[in-house]
Write a structure and sequence with these properties.
CATH class of one domain: Alpha Beta
Distance between the termini: 28 Å
Strand content: 15-25%
Shape: globular
Structural class: alpha/beta
Strand order of the largest sheet: 8-9-10-5-11-12
Radius of gyration: 19 Å
Order of helices and strands: EEHHEEEHEEHEHHHHEHEHEEHH
CATH architecture of one domain: 3-Layer(aba) Sandwich
Length: about 300
């Protein structure tokens, strides 16, 4: 389990077939032959080297348009007594998207966990619209601060119907009727789910399950979506579908999106802003296009 994974979380998989100890199996980042693949340790070492000139808060505010909807100031956080994030700043504006990339254990998912209230906060603060929400519980982050967390794959209830899964997304709604009304809005927006209203969620395709997970997070009408690995475990055709859905939520409905994405190229192509995390600190920040063109990012995370 990596340092950024809480108990029960997912850790990075082994690229080898049977999980044995054969050292000839290659594990790391990049594409091409074995000679072009960097080990995870080597990626982390080289990523440390690019973190010399860390972006300041002024640069982050500039990328966020000067008035961020979601801001993190000097956050130090982790699990139990273990600190994973160290004096971290973050800023993303209303209707913007931010993609977090970096080597395993860099603290990417821990940022999402901290925003939503799943970690120990040792210092710093989290703000929504200028209002501090650091100490709110996860349910109050959703109900009062408008923050929704979309978990990694396999978070649907397989033996419940699509409709029942959506109803559960409204467990904090003012009334069951309000949750059901919000569910009908989802069905009106996504015909694919409406057609499977009474179908058990466990029988859906991977792409449909991901759509259900995203839609369930919309029932409380949040303004901020925390999206953890939207492409994980999906076939390419479903990955495109999921990013089209996220694009519609951002561009069409004005949602602010903070995303961790294992496919760094796809994530940066989607996002307005990109951050590179190294050892729980911010190493690089820029527009998605700027990081896609950065040869250091390309070498370490894009297979270039």
């Amino acid at each position: 389990m990596s340092a950024e994974q809480p108990p029960g979380g997912k850790s990075g998989g082994n690229n080898g077939g049977d999980g044995g100890s054969d050292e000839s199996k290659t594990k790391g980042y990049g594409f091409g032959g074995v000679e072009t693949v960097l080990s995870v340790d080597e990626v982390s070492r080289q990523a440390e080297e690019i973190a010399v000139d860390r972006p300041g808060r002024d640069r982050l505010l500039e990328l966020a348009g000067g008035a961020p909807l979601l801001a993190i100031e000097g956050l130090t956080a982790g699990y139990g007594k273990m600190k994973v994030l160290h004096d971290l700043d973050l800023a993303v504006g209303e209707g913007q998207s931010l993609c977090l990339i970096g080597p395993n254990g860099a603290g990417k998912s821990t940022i999402l966990h901290s925003i939503f209230g799943f970690t120990e906060i040792f210092g710093g603060r989290i703000l929504i619209g200028g209002r501090e929400v650091t100490a709110l519980t996860p349910k109050d982050k959703l109900r009062r601060a408008g923050i929704a967390y979309i978990l990694q794959d396999n978070s649907v209830f397989p033996d419940m119907t699509v409709e029942e899964n959506l109803w559960l997304g409204g467990y904090l709604a003012a009334s069951p009727a309000a949750a059901k009304a919000a569910t009908e809005k989802v069905f009106a927006k996504y015909a694919r789910l409406a057609e499977r209203r009474t179908q058990k969620a466990g029988t859906l395709s991977g792409g449909e399950r991901r759509l259900l997970e995203i839609s369930r997070a919309l029932i409380m009408e949040p303004s901020v979506l925390l999206v953890d690995e939207p492409s994980i475990g999906l076939e390419p055709r479903f990955i495109d579908m999921v990013f089209e859905i996220l694009d519609d939520l951002q561009r069409g409905e004005g949602k602010t999106i903070v995303m961790v994405e294992q496919n760094a190229k796809k994530g940066l192509e989607f996002a307005d802003i990109g951050y590179v995390l190294v050892s729980g600190q911010l190493a690089l920040a820029g527009t998605g296009d700027e990081l896609l063109q950065d040869e250091r990012v390309g070498r370490l995370f894009l297979g270039g």
